Amino acid sequence: MNMEKTAEVYSEIAKVIAAHESFIIMSHVRPDGDAIGSQLALGFSLKAMGKTVYLVNEDGVPESLEFMKGSEVVTQPPSEPVDADVAIAVDTATKPRLGENSLVAAGKAKVWINIDHHISNPCYGDVNLIDGTKPATGQILYELIKALEMPIPEETRDAIYVAVSTDTGSFQYGSTTAETYEMGADLIRQGLDVGKINADTYDNHPYRRLELMRALLNTLDISADGQLAHWELLHQTQVDLKLQPDDSEGLIDLIRGVRGVRVAVFFEELDGGKIRVSMRSKDKGVNVCEVALQFGGGGHALAAGIRMPGPMVEAKAKVLAALGESMAGGN
Ligand code: AMP
Ligand code: MN
Ligand code: MN
Hints:
It contains twelve helices and twelve strands. It is an alpha/beta fold. The chain has two domains: 3-202, Alpha-Beta Complex (inorganic pyrophosphatase (n-terminal core)); 207-330, Diaminopimelate Epimerase, Chain A, domain 1 (Roll). Strands 3-2-1-4-5-6 form a six-stranded parallel sheet, covered by helices on one side. A six-stranded mixed sheet has the order 7-8-9-10-12-11. Bound molecules: adenosine monophosphate and manganese (II) ion (MN) (2 copies).
């Protein structure tokens, strides 16, 4: 999005905020740090302006993000629509990824705002602030909040940091820009405790996560040329180890980090038999979002996901074949 277009969308969002009192803010199912962080960041800023804000996530706040200030106000959707005039979706590539119950909860909204950084986002809002060049939705929100001179309470400050840190692999990925670091510096000047927030985010895992890692390593497989590595998690293993959905968050980086690997894939069998596929590419020549789109998924060029029918063996065969083709073509 160019600067003129961005300024235009900012002013549309400012008008919607000024003209309404009640908001429901949602993000994607199986929320990550950018999803919950973005909800909290915008939610607490709007609350500080005196607005009524409902923070709703289909799956609630995962245990690993419960440390976030204010996270207790994010609830699973009630069965009835809430009294909100404006619905805001953050970090969510497609409307159905908000979840069926969240869509019911937002049923009274007259205006939809869609704020995201997924290149596959089809602009399903009445107002769309989509920028695929930003490393996290949290950074888009930081820039919006600054531009509109909205308040930055502690909850917002910390949530922006967690959102951006988790989506950039701790400010490491190529999507990280000078603006990202400048933002980090600004948040620290505003009182953010870097040591504590990083310890809470990265050094606070339950023991079962290591047991999960051991189970995953037992399924590790790599193509003959060493370029395509994958592992799988069966539903029975999740039951046996009493896993929570977010226990696997970020583990794919272990196989992505192997020398020679261009693409890493994580296959997970969900309760009910659907397969969740997580893909990471280390090679700009292999766009995993394009592969995800072939199966109804989406995401970013180097990190994308799919939810597809099982059984596991068939889903694996289809996705690995599509990836093999993409890797061979170098497209
Ligand atoms: P994950 O592998 O779940 O961490 O997801 C990688 C990226 O792809 C994230 O930005 C997700 O929001 C996005 N993504 C994951 N699954 C889907 C899906 N089924 N549809 C669209 N985008 C997805
Ligand atoms: Mn996300
Ligand atoms: Mn994100």
